[in-house]
Amino acid sequence: MTRADRAAAPASRRTLLAAGAVLAALVLLGWLVFGSGGDAAGPGVPSAPPGTAPSGTAPSGTAPAGDGARGIAEAELPPSARETLASIDAGGPFPYRQDGQTFGNREGLLPKRERGYYREYTVDKPGEDDRGPWRIVTGGRGPDVYYWTADHYQSFVRILR
């Protein structure tokens, strides 16, 4: 082995170690963002068992809904959520281009249905400067069922209408 070969060997080991470290960092980042198989809610967002709302996200007057999810009366929702429901009932217009698009239910918290069954709508949250975490997800062509999430898809409460 020549002197040049011996000098090149540590350099290529360093390159491999650096590439491995970068790959490990990317895997860790991917796991942190997509580890649950669903949308990332971000740091500090409480999680809850499927079909329930974390403490503080739904008023205390909720009741069980027919599909096993907790239910909340429409009148108990924040005013901006009731406004979004009125827009859904009217067929629009909606303030965000994502409104009315297919919701994939990647979290698996809602009952399993065929692709395209669920649609999502943004609910403006006071004090947020972007779409924020509040959404209404509808199901069916009517729509037939409505769900509220105050924590960006970490839990759902069925809206009783």
From TrEMBL:
* First-level EC class: hydrolase
Q: Which GO terms describe its molecular function?
A: hydrolase activity; RNA binding; RNA endonuclease activity
Q: Which UniProt keywords apply?
A: Hydrolase, Nuclease
Give the EC number(s) under which this enzyme is classified.
3.1.27.3
- Record-linked Pfam families: Ribonuclease (PF00545)
What is the annotated signal peptide range for this record?
Answer: none
**SUPFAM superfamilies on file:** Microbial ribonucleases
| Spans annotated as Disordered | 42-108
Please list the residue ranges that the record marks as compositionally biased, kind Low complexity: 53-67
Specify the protein name: Ribonuclease T1
**UniProt organism field:** Naumannella cuiyingiana
